[in-house]
């Protein structure tokens, strides 16, 4: 009988965040597929576990993936971990899950730490609807194009970012979304120097021009404010004139047309007074 692939989230900074179920799953697995075994061995030492490990990362996933799948099909249980957080979210774990799913192999996700949800929940921005953008493209032109595609996005947007690219990304955010858009810069979450700064994009540009960005970042950006439809002043005037022809008083016509077209009653009244020369 085939084994299973377990997706095991690991702490994004605070070892205390490893759950009992995650630890039990690691202990029960036949082998662990780790992004970097040197990182994972520290976690295993903390849990007093010793386990056979293989590497599975961006540079070997094309060969390592099928090899892991074969072992699972032959009956072994594999626990997939990354350096930090939930496997398959902005890391090559998603390819292994797809490979197993396509082969009919069972995949079980253990819930746990994820930089995306930690940042979103602490951001202070609307969370009911959001879009996760992960890492923006490295290439400046592609990064701009991707952001421009989000110019009218009304949902809160979440981006992962590396410290050395933070300044360029903030500049691009300011250019596309404008400097007044609110954002939360979430840095070193769950770690000793955790910092959540809620400010505007323009203020963030200034802040990180003055200080070197260090650590790991998640940017949570407010969505595009709902556009207020421009009031149809010409339409209101035409409607008021029509109502006048139908016999309504100037005051009644202005009030009704103003309400129908969402314009100011007093302004419309004055315009009509002027037109009628009374
Ligand atoms: N799969 C992981 C998850 O979703 O939690 C994320 C993996 S991704 C390769 C790494 C990125 O997650 C970092 O570049 C950073 O944007 C974010 N990240 C991870 N740990 C973080 C932390 N403690 N504080 C802020 N951001 C973090």
Q: What would you note in describing this structure?
A:
With 278 residues, the chain is α/β, with parallel strands linked by helices. It is 42% helix and 17% strand. Strands 3-2-4-1-5 form a five-stranded parallel sheet, with helices on both faces. A five-stranded mixed sheet has the order 6-7-10-8-9. The longest helix is centred in the first third of the chain and has 13 residues. The chain is elongated, with a radius of gyration of 28 Å. The site of S-adenosylmethionine (SAM) has 23 residues, from helix 5, strand 7 and strand 10.
How many strands appear in the DSSP assignment? 10
What is the N-to-C succession of helices and strands? EHEHEHEHEHEHEHEEHEHHH
Query: Are any ligands bound, and if so which?
Result: S-adenosylmethionine
Low-pLDDT stretches: none
Cα(first) to Cα(last) distance is 93 Å
Radius of gyration: 28 Å
Write a short abstract of this structure.
This protein has eleven helices and ten strands. By secondary structure, the protein is of the alpha/beta class. Helix 6 links the parallel strand 6 (130-135) and strand 7.
Write the layout of secondary structure elements.
Blueprint: E1 4-7, H1 20-28, E2 31-34, H2 37-46, E3 53-55, H3 61-73, E4 78-81, H4 93-102, E5 106-109, H5 115-122, E6 130-135, H6 140-148, E7 156-161, H7 166-177, E8 182-187, E9 195-200, H8 201-210, E10 217-221, H9 233-245, H10 250-261, H11 265-276
Parallel strand pairs: 1-4, 1-5, 2-3, 2-4, 6-7
Antiparallel strand pairs: 7-10, 8-9, 8-10
Helix pairs in contact: 3-4, 6-7, 7-8, 9-10, 10-11
The structure holds S-adenosylmethionine.
S-adenosylmethionine is lined by residues 12-13, 82, 84-86, 89-91, 114-116, 160-162, 186, 188-191, 216-218.
């Amino acid at each position: 009988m085939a084994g299973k692939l377990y997706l095991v989230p690991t702490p994004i900074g605070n070892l205390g965040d490893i759950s009992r179920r995650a630890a039990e799953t690691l202990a029960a697995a036949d082998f662990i597929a780790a992004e970097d075994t040197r990182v994972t061995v520290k976690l295993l030492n903390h849990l007093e576990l010793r386990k056979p490990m293989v590497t599975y990362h961006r540079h070997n996933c094309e060969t390592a993936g099928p090899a892991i799948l074969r072992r699972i099909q032959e009956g072994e249980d594999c626990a997939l971990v990354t350096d930090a957080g939930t496997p398959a979210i902005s890391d090559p774990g998603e390819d292994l899950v797809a490979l197993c799913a396509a082969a009919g192999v069972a995949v079980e996700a253990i819930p746990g730490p994820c930089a995306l949800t930690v940042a979103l929940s602490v951001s202070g921005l609307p969370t009911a609807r959001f879009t996760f953008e992960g890492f923006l493209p490295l290439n400046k032109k592609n990064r701009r194009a991707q952001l421009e595609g989000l110019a009218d996005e009304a949902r809160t947007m979440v981006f992962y970012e590396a410290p050395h690219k933070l300044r360029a990304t903030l500049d691009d955010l300011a250019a596309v979304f404008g400097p007044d858009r609110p954002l939360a810069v979430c840095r070193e979450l769950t770690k000793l120097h955790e910092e959540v700064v809620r400010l505007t994009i323009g203020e963030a540009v200034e802040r990180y021009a003055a200080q070197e960005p260090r650590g790991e970042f998640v940017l949570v950006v407010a969505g595009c404010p709902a556009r207020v439809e421009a009031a149809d002043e010409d339409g209101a005037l035409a409607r008021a004139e029509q109502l006048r022809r139908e016999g309504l008083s100037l005051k009644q016509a202005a009030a009704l047309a103003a309400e129908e077209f969402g314009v100011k009653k007093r302004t419309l009244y004055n315009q009509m007074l002027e037109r009628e020369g009374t």
